[in-house]
């Protein structure tokens, strides 16, 4: 179910949305932009996806170990 939401933005943001996104597409744009920040299930899925990225996890582990080593000096 979709719900209607009224928001207030500055004139330049309003004009920029119309110019860059286009009429009748602003709602979809804002939905895609905001959804990952407010819908927990999608955030959990994103974290699982990031955790499955072996190269990224290895890089993160190396970075965190280097930071810990620097902090112990």
Short overview:
The chain is 74% helix and 0% strand. The protein is mainly α and 73 residues long.
Number of helices: 4
Amino- and carboxy-terminal Cα gap = 56 Å
Helix content: over 70%
Strand-residue fraction?
Answer: under 5%
Largest sheet: none
Low-pLDDT ranges = none
Instruction: Kindly give the count of domains.
Output: 2
**Mean pLDDT across every amino acid position:** 87
Overall 3D geometry?
elongated
- SS content category: mainly alpha
- Please trace the helix and strand order, writing H or E for each element: HHHH
Gyration radius, in Å: 20 Å
β-strand number: 0
Give me the secondary-structure topology.
Elements: H1 11-20, H2 26-38, H3 40-52, H4 54-71
Helix pairs in contact: 2-3
Tell me what you see in this structure:
- The protein has four helices and no strands.
- The chain is an all-alpha fold and 73 residues long.
- It folds into two domains: 1-38; 39-73.
- The model has no long low-confidence stretch (mean pLDDT 87).
Keywords:
single chain, 73 residues, mainly alpha, 2 domains, 4 helices, 74% helix
């Amino acid at each position: 179910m979709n719900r209607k939401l009224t928001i207030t933005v500055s004139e330049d943001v309003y004009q920029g949305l119309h110019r860059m996104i286009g009429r009748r597409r602003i709602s979809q744009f804002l939905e895609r932009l905001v959804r990952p920040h407010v819908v927990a299930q999608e955030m959990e899925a994103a974290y699982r996806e990031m955790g499955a990225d072996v190269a990224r996890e290895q890089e993160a582990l190396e970075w965190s170990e280097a930071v810990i080593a620097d902090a112990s000096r």
